[in-house]
Amino acid sequence: MDNLRLNVSLLRRRVPNLTSAAKSMGLRPATVSNLCTGKIPIERAEVRTLVALASLAQCSLDELILRGESVEMIETKIKTLDLFAPIAKGGTVGLVARPGMGQLVLLGELFYRLKNDGYSVILLKPEENHPELNDITEYADVVVDSIEKAYEQIITLGANQDIIFTADRSHVLTGEIFNLQDQLHTANIQTVTTFLLDLKGAVVDEDLPYGPLETLLYFDADLAARHSFPAINPIYSTSSVLEGAHLDQNHLFIQQRAQKLLRRYRELRSLVNVRGLEAIPTAEKETYHRGERLEAYFTQPFYVAETYSGIKGESVDINTTLNDVRKILDGGADSADLKSLTYIGKL
């Protein structure tokens, strides 16, 4: 079967306010979001859904559905991102978090790592004053205060470098981001990967907060409260890169096994928190302990936080992550002390 995927960039250009538009056509925004990120494969989509999306975008089904095109992954060497929600190069990444969950630290770390990989980082500041942004501006190559200046810098720097462009949701609401992406669509530049964040935290309560996305990074309040950073939710975070044809099958298989274990572990943890470990069946204790160890393994020291944490930053390539996760899933770390798995790089 052909490698099929939704033409998210076309949807983004043609239907800026996709949430309202989808509802008006009788579509669930969550379904549309999952189709955009690949959580629901195109092959499993209802025909009426695809027809409705094509109608909204005023395009044919052939234009809406791309065939035989791959989505390239940006390897960040951040374990939980690369396994559960790989960043799609040239796509749009949405960060869904409330203030204090670590989204700015993660962005600063991504800026630091991707600059070292040859990307140029452009940050568009929101109109309102957000002093917390000062913590990451030092990791950007260019900081601008208007969409016009952002366009100029992308055109200038993008002639020779891949671009990481970051903006607050306030620019999404005005439609400026969509207009910018439309302008860049025909420009002769390298790829532009866009990160959208919401400094106010309102996106947590919305079904489709940024419009269509290639990668969704959903932050987890429980992980943040327990200082398990980066606090990325491994169940809700997803990416179009995870569509089977875009990943090697080993990655997809291990990712799905890890998600299944963590999903059950989270259910058991809720019970243990209330009634203690004795409350869960003996047969489930192995699942609980392995889930606990896997969750600990996904904590990771960041380079930008070394001054505060006192722990040296770590990078872990995706092949090492896959091997380590498989080992934990298969019981190879059952005897390891939980602390020895927390804030490490590789096993």
Automatic annotation (TrEMBL):
Which subcellular locations apply to this protein? Answer: Membrane
Task: Provide the alphabetized UniProt keywords.
Answer: ATP synthesis, ATP-binding, CF(1), Ion transport, Membrane, Nucleotide-binding, Translocase, Transport
PROSITE patterns in UniProt: ATPASE_ALPHA_BETA
Principal cellular location given in the protein's record? membrane
**Record's keyword annotation contains Glycoprotein:** no
- Spell out the molecular function terms from Gene Ontology: ATP binding; proton-transporting ATP synthase activity, rotational mechanism
Looking up InterPro entries in the UniProt record yields: ATPase_a/bsu_AS, ATPase_alpha/beta_chains, ATPase_F1/V1_b/a_C, P-loop_NTPase
Family membership noted in the UniProt record: Belongs to the ATPase alpha/beta chains family.
- Listed name of the protein: ATP synthase subunit B
**Organism annotation:** Heyndrickxia shackletonii
